[in-house]
Amino acid sequence: MKRPYIYITRKCSEEQLKPLYEVADVDMWKEEEIPCPREILLEKAEKADGLLTMLSDSIDKELLDKSGQLKVIANLAVGFDNIDVQYANSKGIVVCNTPDILTDTTADLTFGLLLSTARRLMEASEYVKQNQWKSWGPLLLAGHDVHHKTIGIVGMGKIGQAVAKRATGFGMDILYHNRSRNEKAEKTLGATYRSFDELVTASDFIVCLAPLTAETRELFNKDAFQKMKNSSIFINASRGAVVNEDDLYDALVNGEIAGAGLDVFLNEPIGAEHPLVGLHNVVALPHIGSASYETRYAMMKLCAMNIAAVLNGNEPKTRVVI
Fold first, then answer.
1. Under CATH, what is the fold of the domain 103-284?
2. Does the predicted TM-score (pTM) go above 0.85?
3. Of residues 166, 177, 239, 274, which has the active-site annotation?
4. Regarding the domain with residue range 5-101+293-311, which homologous superfamily does it belong to in the CATH classification?
């Protein structure tokens, strides 16, 4: 009997993919940082029984129509806005993601991004490396305190709650905005629900962890930034498209907000020519929210287990349900 064929769109740890090698013939794009070209992905998808994909891969109607025998797609991410899930489901294709595993790791990075931006850590490090440190000054690279300030979290899902938990250690007042009230967060973390406008107006740190939807696309725009305090700092570790980047640039340049920490951008990857990157009050990271060895290996293993389960006629551990 012919073994199923699996295509993996980025170089991953073969050790973590053992569940796949046991049940299928596995083919993998050999580059770790260079995306699989679209034409190759389309070619491989035509004969694939399963795909292990990245957020950078567009799994759209064109690809799904070419995939005559595709049974399962496992996305190496919590998000799945790169996949037309409804159309895939209509064709009997199961879509899986990797929730829960990366919650704490992403929360660590998000809070680290907040601290780095507030205390100007990246600037300070470069200041030393560029041999600019000549003497001590009372306001040399002075930043903003984090402790006992107000943090406003937009998107109080599991990662949002994990960030809020970290904020309690800094004695912060926690506000949140979500599609629905999160009574667990209110009870266990002392978080207070606010409307979006109330949150951005009252918070010292505004942290976006909301999924990308029609409602959240460009949620952070000129109007939102103008409502923020001049001393506020904006952090985005969700999706780049929740922000109007031109409006954010203007807000930073015009002093409407004090700074921004960004792990995601509208069109990734970006380079030094991106307008936001050139601003001294921006900390820009290359979308590394879940990038620890432990977490990324666990994500790979979960993707492999999900694909193997579907190919064996079983229910995957983390099917996307919309």
1. Rossmann fold (3.40.50)
2. yes
3. 239
4. NAD(P)-binding Rossmann-like Domain (3.40.50.720)
